[in-house]
Amino acid sequence: MRPITTTGSFVSALSEERPTLRHLASIRWGMLVAALLLAAIGLATVHSAGTGQSVDYLPRQAVWVGLGLLVFLVTFIVDYRILLGLSLPLYLVALVALTVVLAAGHEAGGARSWIRLGAFGGQPSEFAKLATALLLARALSGASPRYLTLPQVLLAGAIVGVPMALIMLQPDLGGAAMFVPILGAALVVGGIRPKVVVAALLAIAVVLPLAWNFGLRPYQKERVLTFLRPERDPLGAGYQVRQSKIAVGSGQILGKGYMQGTQSQQRFLPARHTDFILAVVAEEWGFAGVAVTLALFLLFLRDAARVAARARDRAGIFLVVALLAPLAFHTVYNSAMVIGWMPNTGIPLPFLSYGGSFSLYCFAATGMILGVDLRRYVNR
Length: 380
Fold this sequence. Notes:
There is one protein chain. By secondary structure, this protein is mainly α. It has one domain (28-378). It contains 17 helices and three strands. Strands 1-2-3 form a three-stranded antiparallel sheet. A hairpin with a 2-residue loop joins strand 2 and strand 3. The longest helix is centred in the C-terminal third of the chain and has 33 residues, at 277-309. The radius of gyration is 21 Å and the shape is globular.
């Protein structure tokens, strides 16, 4: 298969065939339905979790969801091959934005990772994930169907590693960690030789002690230690997870009812509208509510995986996988975090958690993935 080369080839592809109603009907729209239902659950839960706070987060989140739908339409309508053709300049813009944040960003939660725009703020790291996924898909699109060569593996590592390193300097460990699934999923799909896997595992074994001693800030080490032994700081670093477990357990099977949770309504649970929003769902709607929420995530992830499986070119496959991997990791990690199975690293839940830049990433990724599904016909 011929690798992707110039932007012109992407533009000329648009004239090959136009999408028809038959093509639109064959798309896995379950992804979009699941995303919209999750966003609706998120809006309702953000409203409940924000009761009594000085800021009403519901109108802001509604604006972000509305903007997210516009972003979805743009990324769905524009041929993904055009976006791949623009991947290098988009990637460079992302690196510039991450560099600017280090010098003039807004600090929150111990990390200088935000750019303030009046009453709103954004994280360039989310845009960097999109740009990285696009450039990585383009770089690997001409790879051998069986195994990636060592130069290709190193190139993929460099593409992911540069923005990841800039984010770690903020320092935002959780945001940087979300780039690992992008690289890992791309390498698995592309195929890597066993000796490369062994070498990578040995490198990780060497790097982990160095990262612990020289890379992590004291508060980050405290989060890990508190995760291993919550009783060491029950009113400090361990308070968040402790209150989250209480909220989840008190919901039982059917929950206490909308806006009736004691942990959220009486403000015992910190970050209840952002990273720990699933704990609010569990308290108000119980096991049943969490089961429905996770079932919607499963529908979204399953349909996205099927889009990758039936994509017509390797660029489309790599793009879907690189976009989907962070969303899947966010979902699994956040769900485990609220019940104390993973350390608290500030990783939000897709479509539900309050936040503008991450919401835009979720909708942009959804649009690109469904765009790949549409053009499995029109790109013949």
